[in-house]
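Hi C.,

You asked whether I'd gotten around to modeling the 201-residue construct. I have! Everything is below, sequence then structure, no commentary in between.
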Amino acid sequence: MSTDSEIIQRSLEEPGAFSEIFERHVRPVGGYIRRRIGADAVDDVLSETFLVAFRRRAAFDTSSASARPWLLGIATRMVKSHRAAEARQWRAFEASASADGVKEQAPHLISDARLDADAALRALAPRIAALSVRERDTLLLHAWGDLTYEQIADALGVPVGTVRSRLNRVRRKLAPPGSHGATRLTWMKKEESDAAYGTSW
């Protein structure tokens, strides 16, 4: 199977080959975008992301086997033009129904871990929304994009040390009031299946 790098290189001569990159990554990239700005704007931002990626494919770092960090970096920049939608999404997280209410609606689809994650997200939504743009981008690429520190650094064009310091700062900011430690971010990891997003992504 060809690597993403090989496909992108081939697409420079055969533009249609880039559709393979779309097919490989549309689900995780679409899921990340949806969680950040909600369902209403996801199609627009997803289209913008892959259009920009196609136009800039010659600049892709061919030493990277996977295009996912690159695509998520582009998606993160596209989200910035939809800040109002993202703000609405965080208000929706904060105001959403209780975990018990969600469980009553679909008990056979929602795991205990998912319910715990949803409850934690709602509880922390105001503090996450209050983070700086750079801190929130870094946090969500780690938590919802499921990228490593090195991949986040590539996606954002910053040193790995900057990623580490931002996430350490975020952990302290999200820690419970009065706590002298830092909160763990495992509750924000990607959900168990793409179907959890409620879309085809």
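If it helps when you're writing up: The chain has ten helices and no strands.

Thanks,
B.
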